[in-house]
Design goal:
Layout (H helix, E strand, L loop, with lengths): L6 E4 L27 H10 L3 E5 L14 E5 L5 H18 L1
Antiparallel strand pairs: 1-3, 2-3
Helix pairs in contact: 1-2
Length: 98
């Protein structure tokens, strides 16, 4: 098993507008998005200059029946909550342009 030391784990459920905080959303509603996939999270992180890696075989423990997958992001020492909000803003910005 490899070390995940510099990486932070980001699940798509963290960004889901339809979830409550108790059901897994980790960011304020104003930054959340309705539908987000692993590629959008990874692309947003890469646009912000972070290294991102998709792992498809893992399931979020609170909602194990949902689609599998998570994104590992090398935050370069930044706090997870700050990176979450940065990535969420970048996702919203790219969804508006699309």
């Amino acid at each position: 098993m490899r070390s995940r030391k510099p990486f932070l784990i980001f699940w798509p459920q963290y960004f889901d507008l339809k979830r409550s905080r108790s059901n897994g959303r980790r960011i304020p509603r104003k930054f959340a998005v309705e539908k987000v996939n692993l590629e959008e999270i990874a692309n947003a992180a890469k646009k912000l200059g972070y290294d991102a890696e998709i792992e498809r075989n893992y399931k979020y423990s609170r909602t194990w029946w949902d689609d599998p997958g998570r994104v590992l992001i090398n935050a370069k020492g930044k706090k997870k909550n700050k990176v979450l909000i940065e990535v969420a803003k970048e996702i919203r910005k790219s969804n508006i342009k699309a």
